[in-house]
Amino acid sequence: MFAAIVALGIPSGGIWPGARSHCEDGGCVWTMKPALLLEEDDRASVMASGDAERAFDAHVARPIVRLGLVGVDLVESGPFAMLLLGVGLALRRLGGRGEGTFARALPWLRRASIAAILWAIARPVSDSLMAMLLAPGTPSGARWQVSVDLVEVGTALMLAIAAYATVWALEAGVRTQQDLAEIV
Question: 40-47 vs 50-61: helix axis angle to the nearest 10?
């Protein structure tokens, strides 16, 4: 269910770029502030003048940029949705009845661990794509930008690879157990 919610949320980046809520005593109001999608330096330069902010908002309003925002959200959220789907289906298999529930759950855990590896890599890719997509609307103009936080990526990648290795070891154990059962 959570995987479906994440998948349904992917187009929201293109429909409502920079959506935020502002709550006060009278209730909450949703507004779009595309400048919130920018990194701090670019956001400060865009919000420094009304003309720059209007030019940036016009850039983000272009259909090709909106479609690009959906693509960036897909790059970032797609592997996460697959991770949730794999874990959910593995848990469903584990909750089933009959023999071999563990063996039926392991392929889904393997797929989920592969999705976790892709998700670890997807974050810097989506950050870089977002920066390059939005840069033409900023005062500094279009540019190539690669954003990688090695600590964040390294930690996520190590955890994902550890999960994959664990599933691999469990699958090897199940295969060995099945081979022994055939021999005996």
Answer: 120
**Tokens representing 184?**
């005996």
**What DSSP assignment string belongs to 17-61?**
TTEEEEEETTEEEEEE-GGGGS-HHHHHHHHTSHHHHHHHHHHHH
Q: What is the pLDDT of residues 51-86, one digit of tens each?
A: 888 888 888 888 898 888 888 888 988 999 999 999
Beta bridge partners of 123: none
Could you give the CA distance from residue 83 to residue 112 in angstroms, rounded to a whole number? 4
CB atoms within 10 A of CB 118: 17
Handedness of CA 16, 19, 22, 28 (dihedral sign): positive
Backbone torsions φ then ψ of 16, nearest 5 degrees: -125, 75
- Work out whether the CA dihedral 40, 43, 45, 47 comes out positive or negative: negative
d(CA 166, CA 171): 9
Q: Taking the model in full, what pTM does it have?
A: 0.75
Number of H helices, E strands in the chain: 7, 2
Q: Which two tokens stand for residue 7?
A: 């998948």
Instruction: Count Cβ atoms within 10 A of the Cβ of residue 160 and give its class: 0-12 exposed, 13-18 middle, 19 or more buried.
Output: buried
